[in-house]
Amino acid sequence: MRSRGNSDISGHLGLNYNIPPSVIRIAWDTLGGYTLAARNEEGRDRRADQREARARRAALAERLEEERHNFQRDTFLELQDVLLELTRWQALVISQDLKTLKAQLPDELGGNDMRLLVATARKLWTRVLDPGHRAEIGTLSLSAPTTQAT
Fold this sequence. Notes:
The chain is mainly alpha-helical. It has helices at residues 21-104, 112-127, 131-138. The chain contains 3 helices and no strands.
């Protein structure tokens, strides 16, 4: 009669191999070790992939920030050039307006009466207590012409 024990792994097939339990344990331990090693390696690979992905995202963010910075710098430099040219043209227009006013204004429009009115307006403006009203009134030009027709 056949004995069925831990060492009989092929008894149901009609074969009777007497494998010692220590060999079976070594086989199971080896299989378990390979499985555990595979899981550890898979986890290590996954963590390495995550680190690489974080590093790529950080590098991309840094590159985009640098590109934004360069774009903003170039924009400000171009804006500076355009505003300088615009200011130059506005100064030319104002200069021409002053020349035209000198030639066309009668003396009484640029005389003492105008200066007295401007001084009175400024004095009254400084007495306005409400900041909102002061700001609105301050947008008016409260200055006398400094040029007289010659």
